[in-house]
Amino acid sequence: MLEVRNITKRYGIKLALDNVSAKFEPGKIHGILGPNGAGKTTLIRIINQIITPDDGGVYLNNRLMPREQLSSLGYLPEERGMYPNMTVSDFLLFMGSLRGLHKNESKAALDYWMEKFDIQEWRGKRIEELSKGMAQKVQFISTVFHNPDLLILDEPFSGFDPGNVKLMRGILREMKEEGKTILLSTHNMNSVEELCDHVVLIDKSKKVLEGTVQEVKGHHSEKLYAVQFSGNMIAFATALWTGFDLVDKKIIGENRYIARVRMVGDSNFRSLLETLVPKIDIEGAWEELPSMEEVFIRETTVTH
Length: 304
Prior knowledge:
It is a single chain. By secondary structure, the protein is α/β, with parallel strands linked by helices. It has 2 domains: about 1-210, Rossmann fold; about 220-290, 2-Layer Sandwich (Alpha-Beta Plaits). Helix content is about 35%, strand content about 30%. The chain contains 10 helices and 14 strands. The strands form 3 sheets. Strands 6-7-8-3-9-10 form a 6-stranded mixed beta sheet, with helices on both faces. Strands 2-1-4-5 form a 4-stranded antiparallel beta sheet, covered by helices on one side. A hairpin with a 2-residue loop joins β4 (about 55-60) and β5 (about 65).
C-alpha cells in the first residue's frame, strides 16, 4: 500500500499542495487528475523523492518510503528526455544498466519489449531518427525495462495514435493483473474511464475528491435513468405522471423507444419500474451517470 499523508509543498509564496492525502492500492490503476497547475506534477515528484515536501510524507506499508525503494519504481515524466545519438538498443541497454540489471537480464528485457511492440526493426535506429510516437514507445519501454512494482506515468498517451493508445491500455491492464501499482496522470478522460479503478482529483492545490470511478460518478448523479421499451409512447408518458419528468426520447424501431427520465421528489428507480411495468414492455433500464469528463469540468470550475 502506497500512501501520501498530509502533503504540503510551497514554492515561495505559492502553495503547490495543501495537506493532500491519498491511498494507492497494489494491483490497481489510479488516476491522478486535475487541471494544469493544480499540483499533480509536484505530488508525483514528491512520491519520486525528486523534491521533498514541507510537511507530510510518503509511506509504503505504513512506513516512510526508503530511498532504496526507488529501484523498484518506474517513472515516465511528461517532459521526455533521451540521448538522440544513441541507437534504440544501446539506449535501452544503458537504461537497464543504470537500474542495476545484469547484461543478460537487459538483453532478455530488450528482446521481450521489441517483440511486445513488434518493433524489432528499430533496434539499430538512432533516437533522433524516430517519430514522436516511436520515441514515446521507446521511452515507455525504458520506464518499465527493469520490471518495477510501482509505475508512475505522466501523460503516457501523448503523441500516440488511437491504435497505439489501445496497445498501451492493454499493456497497462496486463501490468495491473501482475499486481503492480500504477499511478496515471492524464487529461485523457476516456483513458480514465477505460483504465482507472480509483481516482484522485486535485484542484487549486487541494484534493477535492477521491474514490472509485463509479463512486465518483455516482456522487454526481442527477437521478437520470434510461428506459428501453416497446409499446405506446403516449402510455409511457402518461404513466410517469407527477413522480418523474420525461427528459427526451429516441425511436429505435417500430413501437420501440429509449426514453430518459429524471426522478422528482422521493421517487426512485424501483418506483419508476413499478409505475411502468403495467403499461409497457421494458427491455432494459439503467442509470445514466455523468462521464468523468463532465465530473472533471464540474469539480474544477466551482470555487472550493
